[in-house]
Amino acid sequence: MAQLPPSYDIRDILVTVDSVSTPIYIDREPVSPDECITIYNSGSWQASNPKYLVNYPSIQIRSRANTATLAYNNLLEVFDHILGRAALTRNTTRYVGFYSETDIFELGRDDNNRALYAANFNLVTEPASVSQHRSSI
């Protein structure tokens, strides 16, 4: 199985494990629906060690809705599901740490006057199975 970017695994966790009902998109926020969550892969918050099988990806999660209250509360639901959750394996990755880099912050309004909020998260991951030159911690 090919490795997926963290955004796909986090969406999978939010939809299948946590039953988040707001539509969730990856890397590209669609024009519609008005109410949605979009997850972006945003790089790494710490350089990976070439010796050990541990990586430090980061993601940004954005929420959009017609009202600021709805956009904020949709993101708050996601925030509460992700922050500090127990380790779990999804697809080819074991997620061992879920940390917020920021609290929820307002981004203003889009071109259609919909409210936008975002939060940034740092993750700690390991491969679900070892088949590389780096050692498991």
Task: Summarize the topology.
Elements: H1 6-17, E1 24-26, E2 36-44, E3 57-65, H2 68-82, E4 88-90, E5 93-100, E6 105-109, E7 115-127
Parallel strand pairs: 1-2
Antiparallel strand pairs: 2-3, 3-7, 4-5, 5-7, 6-7
Short characterization:
This protein is of the alpha+beta class and 137 residues long. The protein contains two helices and seven strands; from the N terminus they run H-E-E-E-H-E-E-E-E.
Q: Encode the helix/strand succession as letters.
A: HEEEHEEEE
Helix content: 10-25%
The N- and C-terminal alpha carbons lie at a distance of 23 Å
Overall form:
elongated
Contiguous helical run count: 2
* Residue fraction in strands: 35-45%
Q: What structural category characterises the helix and strand content?
A: alpha+beta
Biggest sheet: strands, sense, closure? 7 strands, mixed
**CA gyration radius, whole angstroms:** 16 Å
Number of strands: 7
Compute the average pLDDT: 91
Low-confidence stretches: none
How does this model look, in words?
By secondary structure, the chain is α+β, with helices and mostly antiparallel strands. It has two helices and seven strands, in the order αβββαββββ. Strands 1, 2, 3, 4, 5, 6 and 7 form a seven-stranded mixed sheet that branches. The protein is elongated and about 50 Å long.
